[in-house]
Write a sequence for this structure.
């Protein structure tokens, strides 16, 4: 009987811990995205994941676009610096 009482107490503790974790997770999700207020935890998690992926995708697109623009400007700057500092080299290469 003692073992079954202990197992029952362990099971109750696991249930209580799980409930606390779910409440904490739900609270954290609502802090990040208050628009998910009132949704059950599972539905809130699904929407949170979807919105997170969307935000990450948008951020990645902006980063890559910015990176391409920086590389383009760097190439243009290098070209202009070469034209400014080595005009004779450019002229001699055109004459030959």
């Amino acid at each position: 009987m003692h073992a079954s009482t202990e197992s029952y107490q362990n099971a109750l503790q696991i249930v209580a811990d799980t409930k606390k974790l779910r409440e904490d997770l739900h609270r954290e999700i609502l802090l990040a995205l208050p628009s998910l207020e009132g949704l059950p935890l599972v539905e809130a998690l699904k929407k949170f994941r979807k919105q997170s992926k969307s935000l990450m995708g948008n951020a990645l697109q902006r980063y890559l676009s910015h990176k391409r623009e920086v590389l383009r400007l760097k190439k243009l700057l290098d070209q202009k610096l070469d034209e400014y500092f080595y005009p004779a080299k450019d002229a001699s290469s055109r004459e030959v």
